[in-house]
């Protein structure tokens, strides 16, 4: 029952259609076979009765008186004259030998089956098996009783019915295939709005579609309308939350800045140093939670980001920021679109480029490529590299490898949260060419306007 409960709508419809077609065609086959058999039996009975009437009309039983039996001419159906054809007739009287059709080939029908003046029919043993026997009696002029019998083997009836059933079930099988094929097409057509609904929901989640819209069948339209209302409500709540978070951050930052300045002036004393360290810790926590709030709020309608256009100002800014060390920032990759807010992308890349610039010996290289709906960016520096056991720890808020290097230990944690909120991923590793250095790998969904080709961008001073 649990397996049935987990079946999808298409599977449920398919099973229902299979059951309906199978039961329906089985009922049609059985009823058509029974109807055909009944019709053929009626034809057989009518034909035998006609032959019996013809046999009575052709019989010669009184000339001469109580003389041998005879026929004025053979019966019109030639099968009565063929040996073991399965069609028989017989005329007999109370005394004397019977007159039999050549098809009996010496066999005899039981004349007791003809026992009344009315025409009777029974199923009885025949010369070659079960037979349908028609019989009647007549009083001859001499006063004795004449028995008239006409019979046919039931195998003729069974062969006709068997041939019909074989053809019928072949036809029904072909009909079943046609019905199931038509039902599959109808099911595909009927459930197409569900596919569209799933694709629309995925597009809303990915940010390529803002709302579900109203172009839906009447059965789905209420659901789409409710989803749009839910999105409107959620967007309003997120907007209000961001405003409140900004107001709260502004108020806290102002008070915290005053406390930090006062604590720094007292940092030569133990209590002041402790207070100053706690103020900095609170500032880092405040930045962290505000960044998480921005990442969560980024689940609404998403604008696309274009590469390499979005990298030009970032590379230029990073070149100026690290110009005292002569770090060269370069980028190369085809024109692509990314499903992510330009602001979120800028914050992620700013963190990655800044970290790479802090540790690089002279070069920071950005490359990207598109594959299977995903764009992968690689930010590689030529610095000393990061120990393997520290790669994941760097994404923990507040963790830093070198306290002498400026920073708060929040950039990578914020960048990963922003990447994951855009249905992407971010991870660190060693360079793939075996040289010292670190590579940050950022994977993001590709936009629909992603194109092939190559371009290069170099940071300007």
List keywords for this structure.
461 residues, rod-shaped, 15 strands, alpha+beta, single chain, six-stranded mixed sheet, five-stranded antiparallel sheet
* H-E string: HHEEEEEEEHHHEHEEHEEHEEE
Query: For the CA atoms, what is the radius of gyration?
Result: 49 Å
Low-confidence stretches: 403-407, 451-455
Q: Could you say which overall geometry the principal axes of the C-alpha atoms support?
A: rod-shaped
Please give the share of residues in helix.
40-55%
Number of H/I helices: 8
Structural class call reads alpha+beta
Average pLDDT: 82
Report the sheet-strand fraction: 15-25%
Q: N- to C-terminal separation? A: 69 Å
Biggest pleated-sheet summary: 6 strands, mixed
Spatial order of the strands forming the largest sheet: 13-14-12-11-9-15
How many strand elements? 15
């Amino acid at each position: 029952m649990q397996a049935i409960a987990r079946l999808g709508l298409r599977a449920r419809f398919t099973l229902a259609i299979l059951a309906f077609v199978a039961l329906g065609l089985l009922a049609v086959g059985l009823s058509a076979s029974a109807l055909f058999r009944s019709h053929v039996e009626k034809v057989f009975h009518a034909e035998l009765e006609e032959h019996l009437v013809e046999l009575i009309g052709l019989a010669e039983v009184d000339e001469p008186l109580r003389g041998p039996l005879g026929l004025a001419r053979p019966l019109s159906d030639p099968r009565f004259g063929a040996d073991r054809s399965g069609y028989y007739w017989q005329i007999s009287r109370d005394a004397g030998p019977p007159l039999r059709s050549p098809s009996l080939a010496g066999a005899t029908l039981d004349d007791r089956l003809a026992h009344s003046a009315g025409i009777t029919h029974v199923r009885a043993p025949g010369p070659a098996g079960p037979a349908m026997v028609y019989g009647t009696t007549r009083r001859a002029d001499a006063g004795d009783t004449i028995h008239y019998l006409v019979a046919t083997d039931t195998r003729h009836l069974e062969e006709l019915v068997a041939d019909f059933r074989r053809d019928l079930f072949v036809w029904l099988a072909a009909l079943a295939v046609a019905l199931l094929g038509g039902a599959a097409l109808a099911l595909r057509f009927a459930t197409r709005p569900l596919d569209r609904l799933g694709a629309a929901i995925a597009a809303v989640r990915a940010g390529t579609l803002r709302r579900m819209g109203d172009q839906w069948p009447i059965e789905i339209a209420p659901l789409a309308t409710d989803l749009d209302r839910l999105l409107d409500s959620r967007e309003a709540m997120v907007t209000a939350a961001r405003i409140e978070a900004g107001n709260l951050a502004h108020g806290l930052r102002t008070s915290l800045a005053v406390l930090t300045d006062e604590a720094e002036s007292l940092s030569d004393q133990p209590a002041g140093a402790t207070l100053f360290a706690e103020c900095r810790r609170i500032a880092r926590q405040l930045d962290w939670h505000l960044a998480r709030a921005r990442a969560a709020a980024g689940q609404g309608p998403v604008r696309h980001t274009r590469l390499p256009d979005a990298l030009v100002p970032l590379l230029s800014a990073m070149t100026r920021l690290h110009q005292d060390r002569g770090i060269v920032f370069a980028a190369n990759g085809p024109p692509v679109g990314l499903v992510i807010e330009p602001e979120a992308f800028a914050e992620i890349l700013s963190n990655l480029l800044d970290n790479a610039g802090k540790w690089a010996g002279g070069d920071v290289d950005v490359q990207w490529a598109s594959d299977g709906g995903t764009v992968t960016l690689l930010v590689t520096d030529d610095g000393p590299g990061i120990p393997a056991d520290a790669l994941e720890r760097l994404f923990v808020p507040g963790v830093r490898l070198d306290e002498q290097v400026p920073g708060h230990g929040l950039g990578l944690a914020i960048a990963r949260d922003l990447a994951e909120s855009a249905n992407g991923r971010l991870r660190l590793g060693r360079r793939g060419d075996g040289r010292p250095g670190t590579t940050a790998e950022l994977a993001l969904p590709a936009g629909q306007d992603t194109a092939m080709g190559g371009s290069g961008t170099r940071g300007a001073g």
